[in-house]
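Help wanted!
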Amino acid sequence: MSAFNLFQRLSQAPTKPKAAPAARQFDVADLYQGPIALGAEGEEQARPFDEKLRQAYFWIVNHAIISPHYDIEYNDGPSQTYSVGDSRRTLNLPSAQSYSSFILLPLLTFATRRKCLFVGGPGRGKTASALLMGVLAGSTVKEVKRAMQHGHPQMTVADLLGNPLPADLVNAQSMDEIRIAWRAWLGMRVKIVDEYNRIPTRTQSALLTVMGDNYAEVLNHIYECPEAAWYLTANDDQGGGTYQVIEALRDRVDVTVQALAFNPRFLNELLLRVEENVRPEELVPPEIIFTEGEVDQIGVSIRQVGIPDAVRRRLEFFASQFELFETAGGQFEYMTKDTARLAGADRGAAQAADNGRDRLKDLGCQTLNGISVRTLMALLIYAKAMAYFRGNGEVELEDLRQVLPFVLHNKLQPDPDAPFFALPENAAYRSDRLGWLRRLFDLSNDEFNRLDLDRDDPVGVLSAEFDLGLDGVSERETLARLNRIEKLIGERTKGRKLYGPLYDDLLKLKYLHQRYTNYRSWLRSQ
Amino acid sequence: MISPAFASILASGRAQFNGRAAEARRRFPSLDMAAFGAFLHDGVDPLVVAVAAAAPERAGGVTLAAYDMALELVGHGLAGPAAKNPLLNSVWRELAPSFAPLLATAPVEVLGMLSNAAIHMASVAGARPAQWQRELAALAAQIATVAQLRAVGQVLAWRAGVAHFRLGALAAADTLPPALALAAFGEPAAHWPQVHAQLLANPWRGNAEGREFGSFSGLGGAFGTPPQVRATNDGFVVRSAERHYLLVADACGAVLHSATAQEFEQAPNGQPSSVRVDGASLHIGARSIVLDVPPGDIAIAANAHTVAITSPWTHAIRLLPLA
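Answered by r_m:
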C-alpha cells in the first residue's frame, strides 16, 4: 500500500470554519498536530454530520467529479465582478464559500432522501455522480452498478419490479401462493434509474408507484421499500427521449440538476487517472461513508433548521405570482391557470381578453402554470438542507434563492410568448431556465421591497391576530375584526388591477372573514 | 556521500523508492527533487545511521517511513535546503538520531511527533525552538517510551515559551515518572508533588521580574500602534491599530493569539485596588516598582496573577507578577 493517497485524502481543516468562541481552550496536543498523520493518535473524533457532509462534498468536487462550475454563489461582503463579451454577461468572483450545483444538489438529495434528476448530454458525469451517492450510502461500487436500473425501450414492469417464480405460476391455487422474486434495487437506500426517459409509458407508471408511494406491487404482492434517495438521469428532459415522460412522474422529481460541460483546463486530472489506472468511485474514503442511522439523524437535523418569517413571506409572495389567470374563471376562486388547463382552453384567446395589466411587470405572465404544493415543500426542505450544509441553524434568503431554480427547473413552465422574453436583454433566458428562475425570484424580491411588505403587511397583521386563537374573543371584537377585513378588502380592490399576490391576499382575507363569521354565529348560539 | 547503510537500503528497494518519489511528484507538483535529495543526505541519513547502529534489523522499516515522510515534508516546502524555517532540518539531523531505539520501534510516531512539533514550535512567535530542541536532546537517554516522549516534548514546549500550553503541560508532566518530570523542569533534586503544586498555583514561579512583550510592527514587532490592554482570566485582550489579540503570558514566555473586537469590548476595564500607578512608579501592595516609561497616561490591567502596563509612548507591554 502506497503511503500517498492521491484520491482518498480528506482535508483535516474544517470545511466551513466559524469564528472562535469567546471561551478559549488551549490544547497541549496541538504541539503534535501537523502535516504528518500520526497513526497511534488517529482515533477520529466524532464530527458533526454537517461537517461530514461538507467533507463528502469537497472530496467529490476535488477528487471525483471534475466540476469547477461554482454556480451556487454566496457572498460575504462585496464581490469582484466583470462584464464579459459582447453580451456583457457578468462574471462574479464570490467572496464567500460557493458551490457547484452538480455536486451539491445531489448531495442534499442524499441527505434529505428526495429525488434528483440529472439532465445533460452524454459523458458529463450524470451516472458517475449518482453512482457516488450510492457509494456514500455504504454500498460497494459493484452493488450500486448491479442495482442501477437502465431505462430501455423494452423494459417491462417485471424487469423493473420483479418476476413471479415460474414454479409457483404453474402450481399455485391462488394469487397469494405465487411468490415474487423482487428486484434487488427496491431495497437500496440509493435508487438510480439511468435514462428514465427511455422507459415505456406503462413501466413508467409502475415506477411512479414506487417513487410516489414507496412500495412495489406485483400480482397483489406488496414490497415496502426503505426510505431512499432517488437519482434519475436523462439526456433530454424536453421530450427528446424514446418515450415522453408521464407528467406525474416528472412531478415526483424534487430537484433537477444540469450537468455542465467538461473544462479542458482540467485535462491533467484525467491524465492522472489514466496513468494511475484508478476510478474515484472505488476510492471513496471510509470517513465519508454514511450509515443509515446517520442519514436519519441528518434528516432530523435538517427538518429542525428554522425558516424565519421574513424569508417565508418572500417565498409566499413569490409563489403568489403564478397561479392567477383572470380570464380563466367566472368565479373568483377559479381564476387560475389550472382551470384553463383542465378545460383545454385556448390560452392565446384568453390572454387576448386580458384587461390591460402590465404584462411585463406581472411575473405570472412569464409562466404557463403555477407552483404545486409538492414543489413548495421541496423548496422548503432543500432550503433547510442548504442552510444545514452551510452550518447554519436558520435559512437565509440566499439559501432559498440558490436552491429555488433547481427545484422549479421542470415545474414552472415558461411562456415563450411572454413579453418578458421578447426583450433583447432577456433572450438568453429562453434557453437558460435556471438563470430565468433566479431572475424571476430576484424580480419578485424587488417588488416585495418596493411594496415595503417587510414592514407594511396588513394582511399579515390580521393573519397573525387570527393565529393567536379565538378563545375568549368577544362578539364585539369579532365584529370589529370583520369590519377591519371588509375595510381592507375595500381598500385593496379599489381601482386596482388584480395581480397574483393581491389575489392570494383577497382569498386569505375571505378565509379569515369566513372563520370569524362562523365564530360569530357560534357565539350568538351560546 | 550518504552512509553505506542508507545507500544499501536505497539500492535494495530502488524501484519502490523511485515509485514513491514519482507518486509524490504528482501530488506535489512543485516538489524539488534536488532539495529532496539534499534532505535525504542531511536529514534522513543521520537517523538511518543511528537506527542501523541501535537496531540493524529495523533500519529498513525506519528508512521507508522516513523516506515517505521526507517526501511529504519537502513537498510542503517545510524541509530541505529551501525550507523557510531551518528547525525541521536540524530536528531530523540532530535531535531524531538521539531517539534511535524509539525510532526503531515506532518510526512513524516518533518522527511524526518530532516533525509536527518542530513545525508548531517554529510557527509560534516568541517561542524558543532551539531551547526546546536542546533540552529534549539532553533528556533523550531518559525517555523510554513514545508516551514519555510525547509528554516531555509538551512540557519542554511550554518551558520554551509556548505559554498557552501551561495547564496541558502540567497535566502531561503528571503522567511522567517523577524523576523524569523533575528533569524536564530542570530541578532533579526537588520533590515533584511540591513543584507541581507550586507551578499550578503560580504561573510566574521562578520569574519574579516578569517580562516585556511586543514592539513596533514596522521593526518586526507585533503592534502597529501603542497597545491598549484589558485583563481576562486567560490573559490579556489587546487592541492595537484596529486589530485585536489575546496575550497569554507566564514565567516561561508570552504568546499572542488572534481575538475579536467583541472580546475586547466585553473584557472588564476596571483596575484592581491593590495595584496603583503613582507618576512613573507602580505600587503592588507594599511593593514599589519604578517603570521605565514617561509618567502620565500609564494604563494598567490585572488578572489574578499578572499586571500589564502600557503607555502611549511605547509599543511594548510590560507584564509583572502580582505575587
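OP: Thanks! One thing I noticed: The two ends of chain B are 57 Å apart (CA to CA).
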